[in-house]
Specification:
The protein has helices spanning about 5-30, 30-40, 45-50, 55-75, 85-100, 100-115, 120-125, 130-140, 155-175, 180-200. With about 210 residues, the chain is mainly alpha-helical. About 20% of the residues are buried.
């Protein structure tokens, strides 16, 4: 095996193990010692490829947001129908992505809701494309529809973003309680559809 390939495989093995550890325990409780003991990786090997725990965590955060953003960009390019239908498609896409990538869901929740304070700037930069995509998608859904008096598109988009993030956190908490994933998806899709109606028709001007 060529040395470059061997290095790449070793590095990826460390990142995969770190994704599981940070996803399960968050930044504060995660430990490189646990990664070493549970995945049979020596500490010397970890620090050969990564400077410290911070660098390893940020790599995991970057992988999470890069993959999620790429997936949602693909989905957003094929959304059709009413604003409600498009938004439902976008919310469902996020939900199904996290159902298929549960480590990413843990990393996402850690970075969004419980970020280590000394890494806030770096995390903000790593999630920039994801945030910009959300703003773009939500703005495009709202810009052609009159909002109720006193509401602004920018503020409304921000409210929708917060809802989506807390929606994902709630989903993670239910997964952590080991409920059936199939049941969770069905319940969340039903809840999402109901709450999207409340969000949309609480901000859009009433139709005559």
């Amino acid at each position: 095996m060529k040395q470059e390939i061997k290095h790449a495989l070793t590095r990826q093995r460390i990142v995969d193990a770190a994704m599981e550890e940070f996803s399960r325990n968050g930044y504060e409780q995660a430990s490189t010692n646990t990664i070493c003991s549970q995945y049979s990786i020596s500490k010397g090997v970890i620090y050969h490829y990564f400077k410290d725990k911070d660098e390893l965590y940020l790599i995991c955060v970057q992988n999470c947001f890069d993959a999620l953003t790429e997936y949602l960009e693909e989905v957003s390019g094929h959304m059709r129908g009413s604003p409600e239908k498009k938004l439902q498609t976008y919310f469902d896409a996020r939900l199904h992505y996290f159902a298929d990538h549960q480590n990413d869901l843990g990393i996402f929740a850690s970075a969004v809701f419980f970020p280590p304070s000394h890494l806030t700037r770096e995390i903000t930069e790593l999630r920039l494309e994801f945030d910009e995509l959300n703003v773009s998608v939500l703005t495009s859904l709202l810009k052609n529809h009159p909002l109720r008096k006193g509401l602004k598109t920018k503020d409304t988009v921000h409210d929708f973003e917060m809802y989506m993030e807390y929606f994902n956190l709630h989903f993670k908490e239910e997964i952590d309680r080991k409920q059936s994933l199939e049941t969770l998806l069905a319940e969340h899709e039903e809840r999402c559809h109901r709450q999207l109606n409340i969000l949309l028709y609480g901000v859009l001007e009433k139709r005559k």
